[in-house]
Amino acid sequence: MIKGVANVWVPVEDVDRALDFYENTLGCSVVKRDGAWAEVKAGELNIGLNGREERGAGVEGGPVITFEPEGGIEETRRDLESRGVRFDADVSEHEWGKVATFKDSEGNDLQLYEPPSS
């Protein structure tokens, strides 16, 4: 059985650029760096930043990581926008919560998620 998420691996083109984004823009802490591999910590989640291989999986697409905003979703969105993050759409509201989608420095989809208030 699955207990939870141990790691999420994200394919990246440039590990240095990705580390800069995850550490300095999103505020994650760097856990490890080894060549074309790095790990950052976002709360209790380890995210592996894995250099894309020339062939095979990871040429297009990749995982979507959903982050819980520290403040409200709108406040966090404004903060990220002030750091140069571009959101291509407004915050979408659903009966299961609110979502704001953006991309990291490598073109991977990321989201902010806020559960419903009641």
UniProtKB/TrEMBL annotation:
Protein name, UniProt field: Glyoxalase-like domain
Domain VOC: 4-115
InterPro entries named among the record's database cross-references: Anthracycline_SecMetBiosynth, Glyas_Bleomycin-R_OHBP_Dase, Glyas_Fos-R_dOase_dom, VOC_core
Domain of life of the native organism: Bacteria
